[in-house]
Amino acid sequence: MNEMTQRVRPAAHERPTPHRPVLTSCRSLAWDLIHIKAGDPHRFQRSSMNPNPDVTGFYDPATNTVSYVVADPATKHGAIIDSVLDYDPKAARTSTASADALIAHVHRAGLTIDWHLETHAHADHLSAAPYLKAKLGGQIAIGEYITAVQVTFKRVFDLEDSFATDGRQFDHLFAEGERFAIGGIEAQVMHTPGHTPACVTYVVGDAAFVGDTLFMPDYGTARCDFPGGDARLLYRSIRRVLDLPRETRLFLCHDYPPATREPTWQTTVAAERSENIHVKDGISEEAFVSMRRARDKTLAMPALIIPAVQVNIRAGQLPAPAANGTRYLRIPLNLL
Question: What are the structural domains, with CATH classification, of the chain?
């Protein structure tokens, strides 16, 4: 993994209360959320005074994923966002080189990890959160609407009856607007569905970790054709992100660079509003939805969607071993 350090800014201190909603389908969720208004000031408020955390990004070229270590320099407490468990699809073998790079950085910096944060249940890489938790401690957390994703993919993969769809595999489920602490720094959760129903953005001072909602301005936005995805919801979620102050730093989960530049994973609200090829200022919701739906029809499924989703809806845990001691994943034919 490649590594780059940035600094950002957040505010107070408060432990969250678990939220575990029961949802029956991603489609009903989409209808419930379709009335999200872009720029509604009552939906999200960012603290204006917060110390700056240290942010270190680790780029995984195999999956074009960026993982982050976010730390409070005053207390040396931190969080890991969107970690990667290496997976060889040809041999169906996992390995931990990417996660070990995060561990090495944590040890070098003398950090205590309190959180392993997922922006959503990823379809392009496996989460290393359980491995990192075992090595470093901390809680695994995700947005509360992971339950809708679990309901959908339990059916897709015909998972065992005992697979719970109430999010209990995670240590904590975040609600919209919930505040939590990274050391002495306050962070806040923004529910940003569209790519998936469970997507969240973590806002930490003048930085926002946006997952797969936005990409660099020259690449645009995330796809919406997975089960439970919704282009209209994505547009409204993105406009909420872009209503943050223009100087807000946006940290992306992926970059797919053209040959003319190196991988990059930090931009700003101002840059996205003026330059993003899909959602810059002046592009209407209807134009975006039409573009996004047409573009999604041309996209192949991610190479790791079948192993990744099965593992990630379990909070990164591999399926339980069969009677012969081997773990197995399921492959639905002619479905996705």
Answer: 2-312 (3.60.15.10)
